[in-house]
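## retry 2 of 3
previous attempt timed out at serialization; input unchanged, resubmitting
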Amino acid sequence: MNREQDNQNEQECTLDEVLMELDQILNDMEEKNSLEETFKKYHKGIDLLKTCNDKIERIEKQIQILDEEGNIHEF
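## retry succeeded, writing output
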């Protein structure tokens, strides 16, 4: 699977799933692995962080705030 397909699959996952995968990568990186394997996991983690950021931005845009006068505004 190439990097573009990985990114598409990450976009289809929920935020919780992406965060769990990121947590697993962090746990894996604490193990004694080769420098190359650690570097691959680091890059995968960076991609996951970008995905999380994108998902959070989309969620923030959907949040609406009710002001003191009862009017709804987007966050």
